[in-house]
Amino acid sequence: NNSVNVISNHTKPVLPDCPLVPPDLNGKISVDMTVYSEKELAAKLPLVKNGGTYRPSSCAPRHKVAIIIPYRNRRTHLSILLNNLHPFLQKQQLDYGIFVTELAPQIDFNKALAMNIGFLEAAKKYGYDCFIFHDVDLIPENDNNMYTCPDNPKHMSVAIDKFDYELPYVKLFGGVTAMRKEQFEAVNGYSNKYFGWGAEDDDMYARIRTVGLAVTRYTSDVSTYRMLPHPPGYKNKNRLRLLETGTDRWKHDGINTIKYEVLTTVRQRLYTYILADIDQDD
Ligand code: UD2
Ligand code: MN
User: Pick from 67, 72, 59: which is nearest to 104 by CA?
Assistant: First the structure.
């Protein structure tokens, strides 16, 4: 070949990698509890692209992160979370996208099922390497709490005001958690069977330990959250029986067995909304 290195004119200028530690983090931040309208919110977050994605323009981001929010009938919480989370993630210089996943109204609420679907749909859209599963009502209070995925699944909502900023129990893996794509696939995602409140997070904790991974946490002074008030969820009566049989069920109860249909995907201004249906008789 004539080995002339042609610099074609459409190559983007190579950006320097973003610094390992983002430069302008402040540590403790105050939560803005204002409930803005969608229009006001869109106007105050101009850097967010339609569908709720963003990537830094001055440096090459080190992390591609999908935020998966299981959702039903929590509009005010979502508005407050988006208002606080977008600036927070931009300061951390992440290449991120926010996905809000809801099950069709006739399906009993099932948080883990919604998160499995959110994972599968987000992974189809972009090469995310890190997935943060995020309760809609948890607002981070410290921006050193990096929304990235270390080499073990990370439990991020360690200290919550509702629980007096104490970890309720050491095996808790609910609230806000981070898993690399390959870690989530190694545990076959969440169980699909926990309809109603409770224990789907404990089931995931057991899967993580079964495959030889561990749960890691940042210190509680960094991993602090405000939980927005809400009525208690309707308890799933057979959650404990499901949990007991979890370890011998996990290989055929998760993202490899889930049967769902996406009814609609809407690129809202500040997030991607996914509405899915399942055939509940399976
Ligand atoms: C705890 C866990 C949560 C989950 C739940 C048991 C923490 C901090 N949180 O949450 O992760 O394990 O127990 O299932 O440990 N949701 C809706 N609409 C609803 C109900 C739930 O959108 O009507 C979503 C929403 O994202 C919410 C999440 O599911 O944050 C968990 O439900 P919750 O906040 O009502 O339950 P909570 O606070 O006991
Ligand atoms: Mn809650």
Answer: 72
CA distances from 251 to 55, 65, 104, 189, 244 (A): 36, 26, 26, 10, 15
User: What is the pLDDT of the chain when averaged over all its residues?
Assistant: 95
Atom of ligand 1 at shortest distance to CA of 136?
A: 26
143, 91 in Cβ contact below 8 A? yes
- Do 260 and 194 contact (CB within 8 A), yes or no? no
Question: Would the CB of 70 count as within 6 Å of ligand 1?
Answer: yes
CA angle 28, 33, 38 (to 5 degrees): 120
Distance CA 260, CA 268 (A): 22
What integer is the mean pLDDT of 212-229? 97
Ligand 1 neighbourhood includes 171 CB (under 6 angstroms)? no
Percent of the chain with pLDDT over 70: 95
Counting ligands in written order, the one closest to the CA of 81 is: 1
Strand, helix or coil for residue 224: strand
Vertex 123: Cα angle to 156 and 60 (nearest 5): 75
Structure tokens at 186: 């190694």
Mean pLDDT of 83-104: 98
Interface confidence, given as ipTM, is 0.99
Burial 161-198 (b: 16+ CB within 10 A, else e): eeeeeebeeeebbbbbbbbbbebbebbbbbbbbbbbeb
Cβ burial of 1 (10 Å; 0-12, 13-18, 19+) is exposed
57 secondary structure, DSSP code: S
Residue 135 contacts residue 109 (beta carbons within 8 Å): no
Helix, strand or coil, per DSSP, at residue 17: strand
Alpha-carbon span 98 to 76, nearest angstrom: 16
Question: What length is written for the chain?
Answer: 282
